[in-house]
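Input/output pair, single chain:
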Amino acid sequence: MDPIQLAPFDAIDLGYSIGMPASCRFAMGVHTLLLLAHSDGRSLTSSDISASTNTNPVVVRRLLCALNQAGLVQTQKGPHGGARLAQPPDRISLGDVYRAVETAEPLNRPRARPNLKCPVGAQMEAVLNRIFTSAQTALEHELNQTSLAKFVAATHGARAPRGKRPKSAATVDAAA
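Output:
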């Protein structure tokens, strides 16, 4: 039996092409909150937000629902409805956003349980639990240290690309 040949680490493609789904809810949540922070208190519709995030307004509405339940945004339904920040950006941590929108753990175990008759397989769940718990704690600690206000300052003066400007782009531009 031939030994397994492994590619050097720098030759491994770490992109999303391996067929495993990756959550983008956190990034979309931060993007959405930044748009709302730049709107000067004016409500933005899911269509306004989706024009900037390049995603379907239905996806944006689901995200807004989670952000609303967490008390990060206020939403109003109807023809004159929309969403706006419920708190100032300096009171919203990235940890708040993460906990509001992420429903799955960032590191997942395989669906199939390991072979418990194998000495390595019998230990895998305990080993992975320790590693995953430590990583999750470190992630949330880091996200809790950064407020949305830091990113508002970093995107101050940002402009939407031409041809893909949301209806509310004038509001975003006015914040600059």
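Residues 22-107+147-175 form a domain with the Arc Repressor Mutant, subunit A fold (CATH 1.10.10.10). Strands lie at 73-76, 82-85.
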